[in-house]
Amino acid sequence: MIDAPESVERQLAQARDRFALQDYYGAIHLCARVLDGGCAFPDVHHLMGVSYALLGQQERALAAFDAALALNPRYLEATVHRALALAALGRADEVTPALRRAAEITPPPVAGFPAAVAAQLANRHAELGQAYAEAGARDRAIAEYRRALELGPGFHDLRYRLGRLLLESGQVLEARDVLGAVVAAHPHFVDAQATLGLSCYLSGDAAEAQRVWRDCLARRPANARIEAYLAMVERAGA
Q: 200: which residues sit within 8 A by CB, 6+ positions away?
């Protein structure tokens, strides 16, 4: 297995579990850890915003919804929840334009399904993929994540999971392509960048691995994992 202090997917799953149990402070804490790790996905900001809203902290909720919409301006749920937060804050003059914007957002179908249905199905495939991965059935897990991404092509958290599984199964060139796409979309996602460097190294491109890891270390100084990877390359080249 690839080393990681705590996988992003596990933290996200824990955050959703905390939310389902109405532990909104716990969900916020876990979302903050994911964001601090460089994984700034719209869904993470949205989950944090809904948690803040349910705790009555509407200003913080609004900031979280704004962050989600900055990353994905067509995020329907974040647009609606933003309007609700504005209403709760008494900013009535801003509610109608916000709701009008929500009404204008009509996500195109994905793989023949309405966007909301496709997203739900993508998450179900991802859950099955995670179950297969935990059971050691990597090939089946990879197949499920591929199906998930057909239905949710913008779900880069799932793409990251796929990249890790590909790397763990020895498919380093494909893992490099997949992880490269994640880093291109989320350049501050440190875990993805670190794993991309590892895929470069394992595919025989030590120079590119060093470049990726040095860039990663510049973003997150004193990262023990990245420092260990760079030391490994330097020893190998000595």
A: 176, 206, 208, 209, 212
Q: How far apart are CA 19 and CA 61, in angstroms?
A: 15
What is the pTM for the complete model shown? 0.67
Residue of 194, 134, 137, 135 whose CA lies nearest to 163: 194
Residues in CB range of 23: below 8 A, 6 or more apart: none
Distance CA 195, CA 38 (A): 13
* Cβ partners under 8 Å of residue 178, min gap 6: 159, 162, 163, 166
Residue tagged 């991309």 (tokens): 196
Question: CA-CA distance, 145 to 128, in Å (whole number)?
Answer: 9
Q: Which domains does the chain have, with CATH numbers?
A: 8-104 (1.25.40.10), 155-238 (1.25.40.10)
The answer to whether 214 and 198 have CB atoms below 8 angstroms apart is no
Which amino acid, residue 234? Answer: E
Q: How far is Cα 59 from Cα 196, in angstroms, rounded to an integer? A: 37
90 Ramachandran zone, left/alpha/beta (phi>0; psi -120 to 50): left
- Per-residue pLDDT reduced to its tens digit, 144-166: 999 999 999 989 989 999 999 99
Span 76-122, pLDDT tens digits: 889 989 999 999 999 988 988 888 887 777 677 788 888 878 888 99
Residue 89 near residue 62 (C-beta atoms within 8 A): yes
7 falls in which pLDDT band (50, 70, 90)? low
| DSSP class per residue in 16-30 | HHHHHTT-HHHHHHH
Tokens of 157: 């958290």
